[in-house]
Design goal:
about 260 residues, alpha/beta, L-arginine/glycine Amidinotransferase, Chain A, globular, DDAH-like, dimethylargininase activity, hydrolase, amino acid binding, Dimethylargininase
């Protein structure tokens, strides 16, 4: 099986990452270790044949390493469309203008959120030809409607998934393991929106392990969650594991650190 994407964009962590948004309560990241973990993330992508563009740090925006929130990459015939978001977190909105020139030079088509629409890429989960869109304090229905109009143009279905926050994004506790399987926290396990898929539920206390990164020919999962690792193994999954301890302190996960297509 080939990778489901061949290119990625990441952004070097800002030195003031510890000043960013977080509700984790795990303290400030060790920046030396943060940079090591970020380099390991890039090396993993490259080891799988994925071309990675590394953007410079933006010190004006502590959260800017979580580049996924600035746009949604929409696979289209022969290329990719980029939908530039408008983050619900006002302190992050300037990040979109920083990424815009980069995506405008790469994408075949570029769209941008307007008016009252709010969206962060961490709330968007693509499963086959369906985009699941978390509706919360970071992404609203006005944003969903604008995104749906664009996605539908390219043959995608969009499904809103409203939830009470308690976590930054939909993908914080919900992600893809393969073309038919989702991994999720208990809060999503009985949701009708996901009734057509196989669902694996991470043990209580290991909700962070529900943010995995499915790449087609491989699966990447956060290290340090033994019960979830055992569950994955028993269900036929053999992911690679990577340490995400410092990004976890800032509410960030594996999917947050890249834009992929």
């Amino acid at each position: 099986m080939k990778n489901i994407f061949s290119k990625a964009i990441v952004r070097t962590p800002a030195h003031n990452l510890g000043h960013g948004l977080t509700e984790a309560g795990l303290g400030c990241p060790d920046m030396e270790l943060t940079h090591i973990q970020h380099r390991d993330y890039i090396k993993y992508f490259e080891s799988k044949g994925i071309a990675v563009t590394v953007l410079d740090a933006v010190e004006d925006f502590p959260d800017s390493v979580f580049v996924e929130d600035t746009a949604v990459m929409i696979p289209i015939d022969g290329g990719v469309a980029a939908f530039l978001t408008c983050p619900g977190a006002q302190s992050r909105r300037g990040e979109v203008e920083r990424i815009k020139p980069v995506l405008s030079s790469i994408a075949d088509e570029v769209y941008q959120m307007e008016g009252d629409g709010l969206m962060e890429g961490g709330d968007i989960l693509l499963m086959g030809n369906t985009f699941f869109v978390g509706i919360d304090s970071r992404t609203n229905y006005a944003g969903f409607e604008q995104f749906e109009k664009v996605a539908r143009k390219f043959g995608y279905k969009c499904v809103p998934v409203p939830f009470d926050n308690g976590m930054p994004h939909l993908k914080t506790e919900l992600s893809t393991l393969d073309d038919e399987t989702l991994i999720m926290s208990n809060r999503f396990s009985m949701r009708d929106e996901f009734s057509g898929y196989r669902r694996l539920v991470v043990p209580t206390g290991e909700e962070y392990a529900a943010n995995c990164l499915y790449m087609g020919n491989c699966l990447l999962a956060p290290a340090g969650f033994p019960a979830s690792a055992e569950m994955l193994d028993k269900n036929g999954f053999s992911p690679d594991y990577i340490d995400m301890s410092e990004f976890r302190k800032m509410d960030g996960g594996l999917t947050c650190l890249s834009l992929r297509w």
